[in-house]
Amino acid sequence: MPVLPNSLLRILAITALSAGAALPAHAETSGVSPAGFTVTLGRDIKAPPHQVFTALGQVGNWWNGAHTWSGKASNLSLVLDAGGCFCERWEGNSVMHGQVIMLKPDSLLRLQASLGPLQAMAVNGVLTVQEQGKDGGTALKLTYKVVGNSDSALDQLAPAVEGVLNEQLKRLALFVETGRPDEPLSNH
Predict the structure, then answer these.
(1) In 35, 141, 162, 188, which residue has its Cα 20 to 30 A from 20's Cα atom?
(2) pLDDT tens-place string over residues 59-107
């Protein structure tokens, strides 16, 4: 069974704890086992679905650069089209974080994506972002399903992955509502 270095586990745990400080309206990690997990997050955003969908494609403006290989979110891009790349490019380097496998503008974005340390583990991840109009705003639901083999020890990573995705969802909501991904949200 592969074991993650203690330093990586500490970093992931700290990230999960710090990101969990501002929980979305709904957060749940289920189906946790050494071979997989599902993270489900939800948040109401005070903007119409089209505005939220457009912001998803501006990932370099709201993603936390601490969760990139280059250290700069501005190096990220997301092409909102089937086959589109969720990529990062810097100084001659590049990484594909994910690829769009389904797109319904203003309602659904699905990526094949093994994010962060999951990429090197050769596991499969599918990230689905669903939007639904609600009271003049958007009910956003994010689901991330990750599977590997029983030696993957994914149960150890599930809390950290939930924390990182929770942070990104919060930053997206802040970006949409305030134009700044690090401003405090009111009434959230």
Answers:
(1) 35
(2) 999 999 999 999 999 999 999 999 999 999 999 999 999 999 999 999 9
56: exposed, middle or buried (C-beta count within 10 Å: 0-12, 13-18, 19+)? middle
Residue 26 has a pLDDT of: 84
75: number of CA atoms within 13 Å, CB side? Answer: 18
* Strand locations in the chain (E): 26-33, 36-45, 76-78, 85-90, 93-104, 108-112, 124-134, 137-147
Q: Which residues pair with 129 in a beta bridge?
A: 109, 142
Dihedrals φ, ψ of 10, to 5°? -65, -45
Angle between the N-to-C axes of helices 154-178 and 49-56, in degrees from 0 to 180, rounded to the nearest 10? 120
Q: In terms of residue numbers, what domain contains 172?
A: 6-178
Length of the chain: 188
Taking a C-beta distance cutoff of 8 angstroms, is the pair 68, 168 a contact? no
Nearest to 88 by CA among 109, 73, 101: 73
Cα atoms in the Cβ-side hemisphere of radius 13 Å centred on 87: 11
- Give this prediction's pTM: 0.84
Is 1 within a domain? no
